[in-house]
Fold this protein.
Amino acid sequence: MSEIPTVGAKQAHEWLENGKAVLFDVRDQAEYDEEHIPGAVLNPLSTFSVQNVEQSCENRKIIFQCKSGKRAQMALERYMKEGPCARSENHLFCLEGSLPGWKAAGFPTEKARKVISLERQVLSVAGAVALLGAVMAAFVSPGWIWLSAAMGAGLLFAGLTGNCVLKRFLMALPYNRS
């Protein structure tokens, strides 16, 4: 598939209101809890299941969304590869602009509970650990600089692969679970 089919927020809202489509949110649980589109079915990309999509769609259009569109595109591509051959491309879409596009169009979202976003938690912990390593290296022992280096390497790995070990650890904490 060369071009990813998208649908605008207005059209998606109309389809959802009329029961003609199902919206799948492929973000992680913590991101979903922070804010999501009403009626969106959570199916995180990390544990994405074609069977969950099939059980929920009942011959309706399928729309995938996330925070920026990248994970939604990956979910759509995985569904096209692993899903039933009978479903045509004109029934599969990524939400144009994803969650920010939905909000910019003026449509409502639901906030399950107030939490510090997972992204901010990762940045805060990474910054604190890097700073701690630098301070300890300056005042206690030069060997502590490896703590900062390890955190930097972890962030570089996360940036290059999209797989953040620190994020997964933070997601396992009780206040980040539903």
About this structure: The mean pLDDT is 89. The beta strands are 6-7, 21-25, 41-42, 61-65, 92-95.
